[in-house]
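3.2 Worked example (two chains)
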Amino acid sequence: RWRKSSCMATAEPSTACLRVSGCRQAIYRRSSIDDYERMFYTVASGPARRAQERSRMGDILDRDTLARLAEPFRSDQVRWKPQVISDSGNALAVAYVDPRVVSERLDLAVGGDWSFHWEPLGIQGDRLVVKSSLTIRGVTREDVGEYVLSDREQADPWKSAVSDALKRAAVHFGVGRYLYWLEAIWCSYDRRRHEFIDVPYID
């Protein structure tokens, strides 16, 4: 269930921040293993590939492992970043987690039976791009990570791109995928400090 203030997520509010509570049950139900499986296999493209991936995954990653990987994070582990900043002092907040939280989830779910590798793809337009591969118990999923060069300067842009690549690859195993189903919401934002004044939360 979603609880919110009088502000709407579809339009920029002028006052308090929309507060998100819990997960949309039509999308994500903690108690149903079938939901974990459904979330997991939606990354495949087409019925034939979904069936193939389901068979392969089922032989290696059991349902309990998939459930542990897809378990929601603690509320204190979920952070928020501005996707769009308006002239009126509000920002569109989207949820994310730190890559260390993702690594911790992998350790808790499968112990040390996972590995991560990446390789640079160079600069593409205004983005620094890397390719990543995450292997869990012999099953590998690939994705890319990026760092927008026009963003605020980072001490190590490669590290930012690799961190993004790890999180994206982990989503293919269900880690943090429910965060993509949360609505982006408008909140008061301090441009000078680069932080939200009204911080959204999930409880």
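3.2.1 Second chain
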Amino acid sequence: DREGFLTQGSTFSHKFGFGEHHLKATVTDRDGLTATQERFINVWNTAPVPEILNPRPFSRFNFPLVEDENEIELYGQAADREGDIAGNAGFIWTSNRDGYLGTGPRISVKKLSPGNHDITLKAVDSHGASAKVTVRIKMVGGPSASITRPGTGQTFTKGRPVTLEGQARDSRGNPLSGGSLQWSSDLDGALEVLEKTGADSV
């Protein structure tokens, strides 16, 4: 009923469009008598099958990206039984940490935040069917901060200055200036520096 008359014959092949089809097979004998049998079939669009070729699962990259790896290449492909992925827009890349990354079977990402990322490739065919595949990678590094004074649980008298000492390093382990550290307390908020001594007194 969707595509009208198909053909004559007892055996043939036909590629149906998507949807429910009401088929009728009608025969007419020499005396002009007819008989008909009807059948309903459904033709569904199958979702594509995406694959991420790069990066490999559990790959590790430096944060920030160093000179010899100044971008991360994301490369994938998708198989579709109907053979009609919706162009570059049919490949959508996202990160669970940083959100949308780009479209296309191959893209380059120049910046990802530090930590674990679930990189997802969503493949969409021209009829709207879609499927996803995910790999996990890790961006390692980033700046670090450590408190060397005071010690955990140490007790002080109210009104007397307390010396705070800390260290900061960049992702390559190089020390950063003391001004890179910002001190705060959950009770007092941002702390006022009373005296600079190499360490900070507040």
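3.3 Remarks
The first strand starts at residue 19 and ends at 28.
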